[in-house]
Amino acid sequence: MNTPVMRRYESPLRRAQAEETRRLILAAVGRLFESAPGQVLSFDAVAAEAGVQRRTVFRHFPTKDDLLAAFWAWMNRGVALRTWPENEADLLAMPPVTFAGFDRQEGLIRAALETPAGREMRRQANPERQAAFRRSLADATRGRDPRRARQAEAVIQLLYSATAWQSLRDNWDMTGAEAGEAVAWAIGELLAALRREAGREGEGEPG
Protein backbone atom coordinates (compact mmCIF):
# COMPACT_ATOMS: atom_id res chain seq x y z
CA MET A 1 0.00 0.00 0.00
CA ASN A 2 1.41 3.34 -1.02
CA THR A 3 1.69 5.99 1.64
CA PRO A 4 0.12 9.24 0.43
CA VAL A 5 2.58 12.08 -0.05
CA MET A 6 1.72 15.12 2.01
CA ARG A 7 2.27 18.32 0.07
CA ARG A 8 2.89 21.50 1.98
CA TYR A 9 0.48 24.21 0.97
CA GLU A 10 1.72 27.77 1.09
CA SER A 11 -0.98 30.35 0.67
CA PRO A 12 -0.39 33.56 -1.30
CA LEU A 13 -1.13 35.50 1.89
CA ARG A 14 1.55 33.64 3.84
CA ARG A 15 4.03 34.12 1.01
CA ALA A 16 3.27 37.86 0.93
CA GLN A 17 3.71 38.08 4.70
CA ALA A 18 7.07 36.32 4.46
CA GLU A 19 8.23 38.73 1.75
CA GLU A 20 7.15 41.71 3.85
CA THR A 21 9.03 40.35 6.86
CA ARG A 22 12.11 39.86 4.71
CA ARG A 23 11.80 43.45 3.46
CA LEU A 24 11.47 44.77 7.03
CA ILE A 25 14.62 42.92 8.07
CA LEU A 26 16.68 44.18 5.12
CA ALA A 27 15.42 47.74 5.60
CA ALA A 28 16.44 47.47 9.27
CA VAL A 29 19.97 46.49 8.23
CA GLY A 30 20.12 49.62 6.07
CA ARG A 31 18.97 51.87 8.91
CA LEU A 32 21.55 50.35 11.24
CA PHE A 33 24.30 50.97 8.69
CA GLU A 34 23.26 54.62 8.46
CA SER A 35 22.49 55.37 12.11
CA ALA A 36 25.20 53.37 13.87
CA PRO A 37 28.16 53.18 11.48
CA GLY A 38 30.62 52.00 14.13
CA GLN A 39 28.39 49.27 15.53
CA VAL A 40 29.05 45.62 14.77
CA LEU A 41 26.01 44.23 12.99
CA SER A 42 24.26 41.63 15.16
CA PHE A 43 21.11 39.57 14.81
CA ASP A 44 19.81 41.04 18.07
CA ALA A 45 20.21 44.59 16.77
CA VAL A 46 18.60 43.73 13.43
CA ALA A 47 15.65 42.02 15.13
CA ALA A 48 15.09 44.97 17.47
CA GLU A 49 15.29 47.49 14.63
CA ALA A 50 12.93 45.45 12.43
CA GLY A 51 10.45 44.84 15.25
CA VAL A 52 10.63 41.06 14.91
CA GLN A 53 11.96 38.25 17.06
CA ARG A 54 15.55 37.11 16.75
CA ARG A 55 14.50 33.66 15.56
CA THR A 56 12.52 35.30 12.74
CA VAL A 57 15.71 36.87 11.40
CA PHE A 58 17.43 33.47 11.59
CA ARG A 59 14.55 31.80 9.79
CA HIS A 60 14.97 34.11 6.81
CA PHE A 61 18.78 34.45 6.99
CA PRO A 62 20.48 31.53 8.79
CA THR A 63 23.93 33.18 8.81
CA LYS A 64 25.33 36.69 8.77
CA ASP A 65 26.83 35.95 5.35
CA ASP A 66 23.32 35.16 4.07
CA LEU A 67 22.00 38.39 5.58
CA LEU A 68 24.75 40.58 4.12
CA ALA A 69 24.50 38.96 0.68
CA ALA A 70 20.73 39.49 0.63
CA PHE A 71 21.09 43.08 1.79
CA TRP A 72 23.69 43.80 -0.90
CA ALA A 73 21.37 42.49 -3.62
CA TRP A 74 18.39 44.36 -2.14
CA MET A 75 20.34 47.62 -1.92
CA ASN A 76 21.59 47.29 -5.50
CA ARG A 77 18.03 46.84 -6.76
CA GLY A 78 17.21 50.18 -5.16
CA VAL A 79 20.11 51.86 -6.97
CA ALA A 80 19.65 50.61 -10.52
CA LEU A 81 18.60 47.56 -12.47
CA ARG A 82 22.20 46.36 -12.54
CA THR A 83 25.33 47.80 -11.00
CA TRP A 84 27.83 45.34 -12.49
CA PRO A 85 28.52 45.21 -16.23
CA GLU A 86 27.64 42.26 -18.41
CA ASN A 87 29.54 43.39 -21.50
CA GLU A 88 31.76 46.16 -22.83
CA ALA A 89 28.81 48.32 -23.87
CA ASP A 90 27.66 48.37 -20.24
CA LEU A 91 31.02 49.78 -19.16
CA LEU A 92 30.38 52.83 -21.34
CA ALA A 93 26.63 53.25 -20.82
CA MET A 94 25.95 52.32 -17.21
CA PRO A 95 28.21 54.53 -15.02
CA PRO A 96 26.06 57.71 -15.31
CA VAL A 97 22.89 55.76 -14.49
CA THR A 98 24.47 53.80 -11.65
CA PHE A 99 26.20 56.80 -10.08
CA ALA A 100 22.97 58.82 -10.23
CA GLY A 101 21.39 55.89 -8.38
CA PHE A 102 24.13 56.14 -5.75
CA ASP A 103 23.07 59.77 -5.20
CA ARG A 104 19.53 58.61 -4.44
CA GLN A 105 20.83 56.09 -1.88
CA GLU A 106 23.73 58.18 -0.60
CA GLY A 107 23.44 57.21 3.06
CA LEU A 108 23.43 53.49 2.35
CA ILE A 109 26.24 53.70 -0.19
CA ARG A 110 28.45 55.64 2.20
CA ALA A 111 27.65 53.16 4.96
CA ALA A 112 28.67 50.31 2.66
CA LEU A 113 31.98 52.09 2.06
CA GLU A 114 32.74 53.31 5.56
CA THR A 115 31.39 50.83 8.11
CA PRO A 116 33.02 47.52 9.11
CA ALA A 117 29.88 45.56 8.19
CA GLY A 118 29.62 47.41 4.89
CA ARG A 119 33.23 46.69 4.00
CA GLU A 120 32.71 43.04 4.88
CA MET A 121 29.63 42.95 2.66
CA ARG A 122 31.62 44.40 -0.23
CA ARG A 123 34.52 42.01 0.40
CA GLN A 124 32.18 39.02 0.17
CA ALA A 125 30.77 40.27 -3.12
CA ASN A 126 34.16 41.04 -4.66
CA PRO A 127 34.83 37.68 -6.39
CA GLU A 128 31.53 37.96 -8.27
CA ARG A 129 32.25 41.61 -9.07
CA GLN A 130 35.72 40.79 -10.41
CA ALA A 131 34.32 37.99 -12.56
CA ALA A 132 31.80 40.41 -14.10
CA PHE A 133 34.55 42.84 -15.08
CA ARG A 134 36.74 40.08 -16.51
CA ARG A 135 33.86 38.89 -18.70
CA SER A 136 33.08 42.43 -19.82
CA LEU A 137 36.71 43.08 -20.75
CA ALA A 138 37.43 39.71 -22.35
CA ASP A 139 37.53 41.09 -25.89
CA ALA A 140 39.53 44.21 -25.04
CA THR A 141 42.17 42.18 -23.17
CA ARG A 142 42.32 39.39 -25.77
CA GLY A 143 45.92 38.72 -26.73
CA ARG A 144 47.36 40.87 -23.94
CA ASP A 145 49.82 39.45 -21.45
CA PRO A 146 48.12 38.43 -18.18
CA ARG A 147 49.81 41.20 -16.20
CA ARG A 148 48.49 43.96 -18.48
CA ALA A 149 45.04 42.36 -18.63
CA ARG A 150 44.87 42.22 -14.84
CA GLN A 151 45.95 45.86 -14.58
CA ALA A 152 43.21 46.92 -16.99
CA GLU A 153 40.55 44.89 -15.18
CA ALA A 154 41.56 46.30 -11.80
CA VAL A 155 41.71 49.95 -12.90
CA ILE A 156 38.40 49.81 -14.77
CA GLN A 157 36.72 48.12 -11.81
CA LEU A 158 38.06 50.90 -9.57
CA LEU A 159 36.75 53.58 -11.93
CA TYR A 160 33.30 52.03 -12.08
CA SER A 161 32.81 51.73 -8.33
CA ALA A 162 31.18 53.42 -5.38
CA THR A 163 34.68 54.40 -4.24
CA ALA A 164 35.18 56.49 -7.40
CA TRP A 165 31.69 57.97 -7.03
CA GLN A 166 32.49 59.04 -3.46
CA SER A 167 35.84 60.58 -4.41
CA LEU A 168 34.42 62.57 -7.32
CA ARG A 169 31.47 63.73 -5.21
CA ASP A 170 33.56 64.77 -2.21
CA ASN A 171 36.69 66.12 -3.89
CA TRP A 172 35.30 67.59 -7.11
CA ASP A 173 31.70 68.45 -6.15
CA MET A 174 30.33 66.41 -9.05
CA THR A 175 26.82 65.03 -9.13
CA GLY A 176 26.51 61.30 -9.58
CA ALA A 177 25.55 61.74 -13.22
CA GLU A 178 28.55 64.01 -13.87
CA ALA A 179 30.88 61.58 -12.11
CA GLY A 180 29.45 58.71 -14.13
CA GLU A 181 29.99 60.58 -17.39
CA ALA A 182 33.63 61.23 -16.44
CA VAL A 183 34.12 57.57 -15.58
CA ALA A 184 32.51 56.37 -18.82
CA TRP A 185 34.83 58.68 -20.80
CA ALA A 186 37.91 57.41 -18.93
CA ILE A 187 36.92 53.78 -19.47
CA GLY A 188 36.42 54.46 -23.18
CA GLU A 189 39.92 55.93 -23.40
CA LEU A 190 41.41 52.92 -21.63
CA LEU A 191 39.60 50.49 -23.92
CA ALA A 192 40.88 52.35 -26.98
CA ALA A 193 44.42 52.34 -25.54
CA LEU A 194 44.27 48.59 -24.96
CA ARG A 195 43.35 48.01 -28.58
CA ARG A 196 46.03 50.38 -29.85
CA GLU A 197 48.65 48.49 -27.86
CA ALA A 198 47.43 45.22 -29.36
CA GLY A 199 47.30 46.65 -32.90
CA ARG A 200 43.51 46.28 -33.01
CA GLU A 201 42.52 49.95 -33.08
CA GLY A 202 38.88 50.48 -34.01
CA GLU A 203 37.69 47.02 -32.96
CA GLY A 204 34.80 46.95 -30.53
CA GLU A 205 34.18 50.70 -30.75
CA PRO A 206 30.62 51.92 -31.21
CA GLY A 207 29.75 52.58 -34.83
From TrEMBL:
Keyword Transcription regulation: yes
Signal sequence interval, chain numbering: none
Domain HTH tetR-type: from-to ranges: 19-79
InterPro entries found in the cross-reference section: Homeodomain-like_sf (IPR009057), HTH-type_TetR-like_transc_reg (IPR050109), HTH_TetR (IPR001647)
Coiled coil feature spans: none
Location of region: Disordered: 117-148
Pfam families recorded: TetR_N
DNA-binding region, residue range(s): 42-61
Gene Ontology MF terms: DNA-binding transcription factor activity; transcription cis-regulatory region binding
Compositional bias annotation for Basic and acidic residues: 117-126
Keywords for the protein's UniProt record, in alphabetical order: DNA-binding, Transcription, Transcription regulation
Record protein name field: TetR/AcrR family transcriptional regulator
Organism: Falsiroseomonas bella
Lineage: Bacteria, Pseudomonadati, Pseudomonadota, Alphaproteobacteria, Acetobacterales
